[in-house]
Fold this protein.
Amino acid sequence: MIRPRHRLATLAAAVLAAAPLAACGDTSGPSGADAGPPRPGGTLRYGLSVAVSCSDPAQATNNQSLYVTRQVVDSLTDQDPKTGELKPWLAQSWEIGPEAKVFTFHLADGVTFSDGTPLTADSVRTSFDSIVKVLTGAKSPLGASYLANYVGTTAVDKLTARVEFSKPNTQFLQATSTTALGILADATTAKPAEQRCGGDNIGSGPFTYANYRQDISATLAKRAGYHWGSAVFAHRGEAYLDRIEFTVVPESGVRTGSLASGQLDAVSDALPQDAPQIEATGGRVLTTANPGVPFGFQPNVTRGPLRDPAVRQALLPAVDRKQLVDTVLGPQFKPATGALAAATPGYQDLSAVIAYDPATSRAILDKAGWVPGPDGIRVKNGERLSFSVMFSQVFAGNQAIIELLQQQVRQVGVELKLDLVSFAETSARQNSKDYDATYYNSTRADGDILRTQFSVDGRNLNVRERIPQLDDALDGQLSSVDQAARNAQLRTAQQTILDQGLWIPTVELSQAIGVNAAVHDLKFEASARLQFFDTWLSGR
């Protein structure tokens, strides 16, 4: 295997190994010890909890969509989920300029897209250019964030791509391992955003789209002749599975019943109450913790009582996160302990800052002049302490969590209203900033996810003005080539986000995938999304 080359050891440390990632759950399959060596063939039937938002890897953002799109696209690098190290994939090696403004990638020869066209340095250029110039942050919020301060990509020769930024961008190398920055054929990148969501996307991945029905199903077929898999993959050559059939099954009980009865082979969002039924038929639940921003709600600081910093501060100790986990979820989930999940490089434990203490919450509101009204909900200058939380069911436990959260904050005099919408409406309203607060999580195995979600120049879902301490830290970590300095900036950002009441964290997301006894080696990548390349079926 060709190892990546780097010119600066300190810079390599900063962009490659910020911290170990959380270990994945056991993915070998229930009867892995007796099943023998992997065997090719078969169709894996998978039940998604929500519909794919878009078939385009660059535009897909929720986990269910990324389970599908990850399989059709390759990335320049891959991130080892056990160590966090970046490994070769489409790029066999790379160099990073001394200021992390120039990244040069040397591509593998002989790679082709599923339409037969070769993957070259020009493919890297058109893929990145299309994210910045065509999709923009409105359609590809993650990809556009990763390409912050993008100047352009130059094809030095057929297999050498030089990517340049106007400012240092230390997070970029890790970003090249993500699905959002996967490399797509010209036949796809030449299309406008909306036309890239119809299931005809052309990548170089181990699977291709065979059929796609928006909101209903997606079928992938094995790519014949595939032989340029990631250095993280466990075998070389083609994928084992012939096909993967993804079907949308929104009801948790129906998904579990279909798995137990043999109608499905694997399902998303297998909650603790589903485990006994799955295990009774020889199956198991595979789990791993998501890195990135944990679940929580982000206040729009221009709306209603959430304009008051005291209200936002009072919400932090009003949430009993342990009760949320114990009541709604289960032992594979953990309470959020800050603005980042514990599996994220650069994470800081701020559990003491957000510890459950309703007395403190009431005292903050009392001091700020919010007094209890006749029904217990506080009022100030005629304004009721009431706001809505917009959310979608991208995770099966979301509604139950927010309903319990509603009860918790009412104990301190806050009225929280549920605003359940589709994922598409969530995205549209986030873009237009039409919400009181928005509930979500965002997964990425790099602390720079804070810049994507909280920077005044990023998504800015708080709809806030510049806060120098926060925005300087978010910009500073992007340019820090020394890992210790970068982690210090990330610590400042995490603390400031909570001090300003810009994020009310609830629980850390874990992926919980139910599989039957026939499924082996279904694996999680570093960002906790599924990778089916090594997956195989027995007993078929």
